[in-house]
Please model this.
Amino acid sequence: MKPAFVSESFSVPHLVEQESYRLRPLTTNDVANDYEAVMSSRSSLRKIFSEYDKWPSDTMTLADNYRDLERHQREFDERQGFTYTVETPEGDKCLGCVYIYPTDKGDYEAQVFYWVTDIAKEAGLEEELGSFVRQWLKDVWPFKQVAYPGRDLSWQDWQALAKRTE
Model:
């Protein structure tokens, strides 16, 4: 097993409530709501994780999504990466996701990705979530340097960063 991304002494947040949404760990129990959100906005999501990403494919199945969620849940449980579902305050609809993962690029300790559905984006949630996540990472998480590839750093600049050789 890989080493933990954050120390055992760090209390990983499990529920973060805001007025118009809440964040909690993404689990396999979320497969139907997550799948609906992903597939409803799949064209918009294809540049979230890399410049030429093909995820999610038009033919992604519920079973494919379940396997992804299994991996995210396992990584969260093992403290190797943290994926949160962004859902309505009532918890009945997935609005997007936030991913917090380690990186060995440049001086960054973490790389963060987030997305919201096209409908939530039209309502302004992407900017609201982005502002919140940045402040939350500064205030709560133990990282000094956090990268937001494809957002604060262009994909070209991100790819050009040298890997640390610790």
The longest strand covers residues 94-102. Residues 85 and 97 are 5 Å apart (CA to CA). Residues 16-159 form a domain with the Aminopeptidase fold (CATH 3.40.630.30). The two ends are 19 Å apart (CA to CA).
